[in-house]
Write a structure and sequence with these properties.
alpha/beta
């Protein structure tokens, strides 16, 4: 387990995950919420493998994890000021923002309808990998219809035959998936999935800006 690893062992594990991603393979990595199944966001074949491994179709495109908040501007456009304030308040952390994607990007995450879901995770191993690989398409490490893996053993049980590298950092810090907010500007700001971040915490940031986020559930 990498929580007890030496610096050299940790470096070797990060490098193995990085090389696997660059080869178009799938990796399992810890985040601050649940374990994730990751692939190079700019490798369409790798993203297809990710969706197939989970038993998903193109109608359920994966979110994209980034290693720095500034990367959001390279992936998305027309980011509202209130969404930027949420990034300042909760990134890195359990907040996913659905934004209009940059049309010029050469990628294929599935049937995104012109959007991308972006998050910066609060986990040192995930951030270390992202620093080397760039943006990763990452969905929870589980088969569709099963609970998200909260440790490496659960992820291995479901996905071992599909992945090249599993980074084991012990049980997830949070164990609850991120909160997802629609920030596309296509309607009133709303929660698409309520997770680790509460609606009250979100509106504490947005309401001083004149914006109230609602829970569509």
């Amino acid at each position: 387990m990498l929580a007890d690893a030496t610096a050299d062992e940790r470096e070797a594990a990060i490098e193995a995950a990085t090389l696997a991603v660059r080869r178009g393979e799938l990796v399992v990595l810890p985040t601050d919420t649940v374990y994730g199944l990751g692939a190079d966001a700019f490798d369409p074949a790798a993203v297809r493998r990710l969706l197939a491994a989970k038993g998903r179709g193109r109608e359920m495109p994966p979110p994209v994890l980034v290693g720095a908040a500034s990367t959001a501007d390279a992936l998305a456009t027309d980011i509202p000021e209130w969404a930027r304030e949420l990034m300042v308040a909760f990134w890195p952390g359990p907040l996913t923002l659905v934004l209009p994607h940059q049309a010029s990007l050469s990628w294929d995450l599935g049937d995104t309808r012109g959007t991308v879901a972006v998050r910066m995770p609060d986990h040192p191993l995930a951030l270390a990998v992202l620093e080397r690989t760039g943006p990763l398409a990452v969905s929870s490490a589980n088969l569709t219809g099963h609970p998200a893996a909260t440790d490496a053993d659960q992820a291995e049980e479901m996905l071992a035959s599909e992945v090249t590298v599993i980074l084991d950092a012990g049980p997830s810090q949070g164990g609850v998936a991120s909160t997802i907010i629609d920030a596309t500007g296509s309607g009133e700001p709303r929660v698409l999935r309520l997770g680790a971040l509460s609606l009250a915490a979100i509106n504490e940031v947005t309401e001083p800006l004149g914006v109230t986020v609602v829970d569509e559930g």
